[in-house]
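May I ask you to comment on the folded chain given beneath this request?
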Amino acid sequence: MENERVILVTGGAGFIGSHLVRQLLRHTNAQVVNLDLLTYAGNLASLADIETNPRYHFRQANISEPAALQSIFAEFQPSTVVHLAAESHVDRSIAGPDTFIETNVIGTYHLLQVTRERFETLDAFQQDRFRFIHISTDEIFGSLDLGAPKFNEHARYQPRSPYSASKAAADHFVRAWRETFGLPTIVAVCSNNFGPNQHLEKLIPKSILHAVHGRPIPIYGDGQNIRDWLYVVESAAALLLVCERGQVGETYLIGGEQELTNLELVTRICQLMDEIYPASNNPAMADLVQAGMSYANLIQFVEDRKGHDFRYALDCRLTKNQLGWRASSNFDQQLKETVAWYVQQIRVNSPWIQRALASLNP
């Protein structure tokens, strides 16, 4: 594929990755390579609509295996690498940190090294156009108090879970490879994403799944922890702009500026469930309906997560000013569409939901 633009996306069968792959195919003329190990969180059904696109290529591989990476780099010769592959569930990182260190730290190191090998073979013109874009998380900055200023791109790293610590370490490696070896890197830090194709272990899809099945909807602690929510399609659009316009060495914060407590969010989901799939029409809710109750009565507070960060929020002014991106004000409609999508997937037992359900307890 010499002389063609090739964008390699690691983790392209994951949640954000699948939406980014779709946007890259829609809005660029590039060849798009999806490199994914297909762990429990990877779901090729998320890309069923584009799998026959002649510019789309899938390779199953582990970023922790240099030989596999070298083979894919030799085959496709990417000019942009967008690194999304990561273990990302905090609860799993608490139960077993090893996988997070192996994938998020060691895997990122091997990817940087193979990318560096590729970069050093390029001429000056090609090197000037080359980019390595690393996707991080707002959790690297730690926890904010209520009313405290939002995190900006200069915020101190204070990770408080094995997951966020592994992502913080990866960020530092990415910056070090730019400073030491001249690899043209960019970091993009995302807030909590939501939307179709997110794994069922995450808060929003898990709440919907439990509601459809009439099971208790668990919320950690008292439900007052605050997150900044961003619709995944808008997140992918921001990452597309980072690919197209991002400046080497910059850190772009990508947040929805939609702060809600977990209790507020789940309560909204229950209200939308009442509208989209009324409890009176849901056989799994028959006993509650008979008792005069509905989905909100499924909410159940459970023991708080260890080291549970209280609040995240991102100051996105740099991203807005440099890239011309901002989150829309359509959160309510986006959440409604998200709830409707999951309800439909669950009720028809789609291929996507079958794969997601089978992966819940790997």
Notes: The chain has a mean pLDDT of 96. The longest strand covers residues 131-137.
